[in-house]
Design goal:
heterodimer; A: about 120 residues; mainly beta; 7-stranded mixed sheet; 11 strands; B: about 110 residues; 6-stranded mixed sheet; 3-stranded antiparallel sheet
Chain lengths: ~120, ~110
């Protein structure tokens, strides 16, 4: 059964870089038709899509975050990662990694449990 | 401000039928399929409806989705107490190289 597990430091100071990794088990990250991405949810708020990546390295990003965000993939480790630069308190959120099925278009069909990331000064 | 517009709240009594709307534009709902997610408190969202009206295995047929033009709806019939949750719509948006957009979410209360 597919499992996605987020990992990374729970606390980062303002202006630093958030780094999270999503380890995929129970399936190959190199499978066709699937992108791998990140979604976040600020406390008490709705969902915000961050970006996604194909195993070949092709990416899509949320235009509002694109200048500060990088999503990368490591097929040898069957995992993908997120970096958010120059973080502020507004980046405090639960970060979910998710598999995205891409047929005619893409949607996240399988989610990790999420990890809370706090910007703390 | 979310790209897709949902009512912030909805409610119904057990056994009732409720609908949740999701409004977008030609670059998202008007051009692509709509997906619905349900989020129980403290848990990750799960797919409820994909490709406008398809249910993943395990989702009861009490849940149905529809789309018309730049709007979509989620209908829940035979409302049950365990349906109390937050519901989100999402669609791919073709603008600015393509990205996924979500609605702001609807809190469904079972009275």
């Amino acid at each position: 059964q597919l499992q996605l597990q987020e990992s990374g430091p729970g606390l980062v100071k303002p202006s630093e870089t958030l780094s999270l990794t999503c380890k995929v088990s129970g399936g190959s990250i190199s499978r066709s038709s699937y992108y791998w991405g990140w979604i976040r949810q600020s406390p008490g708020k709705g969902l915000e899509w961050i970006g996604s990546i194909y195993y070949s390295g092709s990416t899509y990003y949320n235009p509002s975050l694109k200048s500060r965000v990088t999503v990368s993939v490591d097929t040898s480790k069957n995992q993908f990662s997120l970096k958010v630069r120059s973080v502020t308190a507004a980046d405090t959120a639960v970060y979910y990694c998710a598999r995205h099925y891409c047929g005619a278009d893409c949607y996240p069909d399988y989610w990790g449990q999420g990890t809370l990331f706090t910007v703390f000064s | 401000q979310s790209v897709l517009t949902q009512p912030p709240s909805a409610s119904g009594t057990p056994g009732q039928r409720v609908t949740i709307s999701c409004s977008g534009s030609t670059s998202n709902i008007g051009s692509n399929t709509v997906n619905w997610f349900r989020q129980l408190p403290g848990t990750a969202p799960k797919v409820l409806i994909y490709s406008n009206n398809q249910r993943p295995s395990g989702v009861p047929d009490r849940f149905s989705g529809s789309k018309s033009g730049t709007s979509a709806s989620l209908a829940i019939s035979g409302l049950q107490s365990e349906d109390e949750a937050n519901y989100y719509c999402a669609a791919w948006d073709d603008s600015l190289n393509g990205h996924l957009v979500f609605g702001g979410g609807t809190k469904l209360t079972v009275l």
